[in-house]
Design a protein that fits this description.
- It is built from 13 helices and 19 strands.
- The chain is α/β, with parallel strands linked by helices.
- The protein folds into two domains: about 1-30 and about 300-435, Alpha-Beta Complex (Aspartate Aminotransferase, domain 1), CATH 3.90.1150.10; about 40-295, Aspartate Aminotransferase, domain 2.
- The strands form six sheets. The chain has a seven-stranded mixed β-sheet, sandwiched between helices. It has a four-stranded antiparallel β-sheet with strand order 13-14-17-16, with helices on one face. Strands 1-2 form a two-stranded antiparallel ribbon.
- Helix 6 links the parallel strand 7 and strand 8 (about 190-195).
- The longest helix has 20 residues, at about 60-80.
- The model is unreliable at about 1-5 and about 380-390 (pLDDT under 50).
- Bound molecules: 4'-deoxy-4'-aminopyridoxal-5'-phosphate.
Length: about 425
């Protein structure tokens, strides 16, 4: 079991869960793409600090100073982790969703936004108040670039534009050609924001190298599950935007006017968008995860994930009922995320059987990427798919990363094979959207 030697040990590997079929088993968490477990190192760093937290930026006392130092040092750590340029800003948010919504409030007037229909809803939806162009799903990385180039070529010159693109799909795990898309955006005078929610936990992300203008990611997918996210990149749009939240911390000076109203001078640094008492423990955890990943390097993790992907694919290669979902082809480079459907099975029931009968946690559904999953399942991207009696519109996703033991993936492969061959030992029905035996 390689995880024993892994440089990135994680917590929560010894949770015992009961099986409906009797007995109990160690839980196999194969849902890293939703939330990854905490790294031991993150947990240790949080535990060492937790008794001493204080108010950030507001207190003269020792614990306030300690917290302020940790908070500001975390910005430096994250900027290093993302290889930011001089002058870039790191804004702490709650999550990727929060980061992209923040950026959406900072768009200059008249900004057009270009986004592929294949995006996670966090990347797809925040721009609805801007002029958004939704681009059709490409069937290769090359076509993604030409689709974007064509769309950008048609726009009015000298007007602001933003491209929003994922680095790795949360549905297929496939890597998108970020550097090429950034070059295309810039060649047409547009900016680009990278949704790195799924990329950052698996690959190094260099803002400088990829030449993206902003990057967003979430702590809880990066082994730091304490409710913190990041938006990092160019300061200019953020500096002139209205504060994302109005309140203390974002305001430099507030004065009462003669006419009874108030005048506010807002900060122009990251604090402008961080009103209120920040999640200092979450931010500390993100910085700790960034340090741990940087020290361990991503090569071992990427190689390990490839090995596990191969184990799933090879283990199920002779099970024709299992169909993996991909846009760019089964062999396209990807992170440790695979989605599939099983012919003749309702995906939610299949996932319920994996949990109840084998103690395996995967995700089922449309993965907050409805147009993409609809397209991959053969339906119209915008429309409803007619579903057969045993098939509702949903897929199953298995995902892994640091600390995933061989046994979890072996059990998953065995479980899928047995379920396809023998059927579930229990009957599952859907109640209030949840599957119950
Ligand atoms: N983008 C992608 C690609 C994701 O996978 C996710 C999470 N599933 C998000 C954005 C949103 O992340 P969060 O829920 O942490 O805001």
């Amino acid at each position: 079991d390689r995880s024993v030697r892994a440089p990135l040990p994680v917590l929560g590997r010894d949770v015992t869960v009961p099986l409906v079929t009797g007995g109990e088993v160690t839980y196999a968490a194969l849902d890293y793409a939703a939330s990854a477990p905490a790294l031991q190192r993150v947990w240790d760093d949080v535990a060492a600090y937790a008794p001493y937290y204080g108010s950030v930026h507001r207190g003269a006392g020792y614990l306030s100073q300690l917290s302020t130092d940790l908070f500001e040092n975390a910005r430096v750590t994250v900027a290093g982790f993302l290889d930011c340029r001089a002058g870039d800003q790191v804004v702490f948010t709650r999550s990727t969703t929060d980061s992209l919504n923040l950026l959406a409030t900072a768009l200059p007037d008249g900004c057009e936004v270009f986004v592929f229909e294949t995006e996670h809803h966090a990347s797809l939806l925040p721009w609805r108040e801007a002029r958004v162009r939704y681009l059709d799903a490409p069937d290769s990385p090359r076509q993604a670039v030409t689709t974007l180039e064509r769309a950008l070529a048609g726009r009015a010159p000298h007007t602001p534009a933003l491209v929003c693109v994922t680095g790795a799909s949360n549905v297929t795990g496939e890597l998108w050609p970020v550097r090429e898309l950034a070059a295309a955006a810039h060649a047409h005078g547009a900016r680009i924001v990278l949704d790195a929610a799924q990329l950052a936990p698996h690959h190094p992300v260099s803002v400088r190298d990829l030449d993206v203008d902003w990057v967003a990611f979430s702590g809880h997918k990066l082994y730091a599950p304490f409710g913190s996210g990041v938006l990092a990149g160019r300061a200019d749009w953020l500096r002139t935007a209205e504060p994302y939240l109005a309140g203390g911390g974002a305001s430099r000076k507030v004065t009462r006017r003669a006419d009874g109203g108030v005048d506010v001078e807002w900060h122009d640094g990251a604090a402008r968008h961080e009103a209120g008492s920040p999640n200092v423990i979450g931010v500390h955890a993100v910085a700790s995860a960034c340090k741990a990943l940087t020290e361990a390097g991503f090569d071992g993790l990427a190689a390990r994930e490839e090995e596990l992907i191969r184990a799933v694919r090879d283990g199920l290669a002779d099970v024709p009922e299992v169909r993996f979902l991909s846009l760019f082809g089964d062999d396209a480079p990807r992170v440790g995320v695979l989605s599939f459907v099983v012919d003749g099975w309702n995906s939610s029931h299949f996932a319920a059987a994996l949990s109840a009968e084998y103690g395996i946690g995967v995700r089922d559904g449309l993965f907050c990427a409805h147009p993409l999953v609809r397209r991959l399942l053969g339906g119209e991207p915008g429309g409803q798919v007619e579903c057969g009696a045993t098939e509702s519109l949903a897929a199953i996703r298995v995902s892994f990363g640091a600390g995933t033991p061989d046994e979890h993936v072996e059990r998953f492969v065995r479980a899928v094979r047995e379920l396809v061959r023998d059927g579930a030992r229990w009957t599952y029905r859907t109640e209030d959207g949840r599957c119950v035996p």
